[in-house]
């Protein structure tokens, strides 16, 4: 119902927004910064039309220099919209192949130079990991959902997969844990009542902190920090 509300309230502007995002993904003249600005503007308008408020905390924890990775918990398709509205810095993201053909999400992926990972294809998955590591080393920022799939238990987390952190360890980049609260509500609950979604950007883990840790231990620690933040902000 909320997606329908967004479409209805933006019916006159939707074709123009779609074309803008599509063009950002197709034109080599459009910079990543320009594409991100377009996607951010459209996201803000869509969220407002859908009666969703994004409440951001900890923006000061985002590293000053580009070349970092966000690792949030995963609650649903709305998650990416939370970051597109709240994050002031351009980033790409990695999602599962099954979601990469959803209309508009596909165009946003192309505009932000993002990746779809085929979890059944080890070779393709490894290539995505290497590509992300290379681009992060060169100064791009990325977001990966370390649970691998969305949790269907509200604000409760699934186990974080150690393999999700391979790009970060190869790039030796800052890992920024991010806690999403009630991000499942906008698209999973059959309602158009106003809703507030919270995102907490937690202090980053720098390479010096995790260089001697195994990826499964990094995953467990990131999950622990996110769970602690969710407990604090929902108390």
Can you offer a commentary on this structure?
The chain has 235 residues and is of the alpha/beta class. It has a single domain, classed as Glycerol-3-phosphate (1)-acyltransferase, CATH 3.40.1130. Helix content is 44%, strand content 15%. Strands 1-7-6-2-5-3-4 form a 7-stranded mixed β-sheet, sandwiched between helices. Strand 3, helix 5 and strand 4 form a beta-alpha-beta unit. Helix 2 packs across helix 5. The chain starts with a helix and ends with a helix. 39% of the residues are buried.
What can be said about this structure in brief?
By secondary structure, the chain is an alpha/beta fold. It contains ten helices and seven strands. It has one domain: Glycerol-3-phosphate (1)-acyltransferase (3-Layer(aba) Sandwich), CATH 3.40.1130.
Task: Note the topology.
Blueprint: H1 2-9, H2 14-26, H3 32-49, E1 52-57, E2 69-72, H4 79-86, E3 92-96, H5 105-111, E4 115-117, H6 122-137, E5 142-144, H7 166-171, E6 175-181, H8 185-188, E7 195-201, H9 207-210, H10 215-233
Parallel strand pairs: 1-7, 2-5, 2-6, 3-4, 3-5
Antiparallel strand pairs: 6-7
Helix pairs in contact: 1-3, 2-3, 2-5
Number of structural units classed as domains: 1
As for the CATH topology, it is Glycerol-3-phosphate (1)-acyltransferase
The count of DSSP E runs of length 2 or more, i.e. the number of strands, is 7
Helix content: 40-55%
Order of helices and strands: HHHEEHEHEHEHEHEHH
The CATH level-2 architecture is identified as 3-Layer(aba) Sandwich
How big is the Rg? 17 Å
What's the level 1 CATH class? Answer: Alpha Beta
């Amino acid at each position: 119902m909320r997606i329908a509300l967004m479409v209805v309230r933006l019916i006159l502007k939707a074709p123009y927004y779609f074309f803008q995002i599509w063009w950002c993904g197709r034109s080599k003249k459009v910079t990543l910064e320009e594409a991100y600005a377009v996607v951010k503007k459209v996201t803000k308008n869509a969220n407002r039309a859908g009666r969703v408020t994004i409440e951001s905390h900890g923006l000061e924890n985002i590293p000053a220099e580009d070349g970092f990775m966000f690792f949030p918990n995963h609650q649903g398709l709305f998650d990416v919209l939370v970051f597109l509205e709240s994050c002031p810095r351009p980033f790409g993201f990695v999602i599962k192949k099954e979601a990469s053909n959803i209309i508009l999400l596909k165009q946003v992926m192309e505009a932000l130079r993002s990746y779809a990972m085929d979890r059944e294809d080890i070779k393709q998955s490894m290539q995505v990991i290497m590509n992300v590591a290379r681009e992060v080393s060169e100064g791009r920022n990325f977001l990966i959902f370390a649970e691998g799939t969305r949790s269907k238990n509200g604000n409760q987390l699934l186990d974080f997969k150690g393999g999700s952190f391979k790009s970060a360890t190869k790039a030796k980049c800052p890992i920024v844990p991010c806690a999403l609260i009630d991000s499942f509500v906008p698209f999973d609950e059959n309602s158009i009542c106003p809703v507030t979604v919270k995102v907490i950007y937690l202090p980053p883990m720098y390479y010096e902190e995790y260089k001697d840790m195994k990826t499964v231990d990094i995953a467990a620690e990131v999950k622990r920090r996110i769970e602690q933040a969710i407990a604090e902000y929902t108390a």
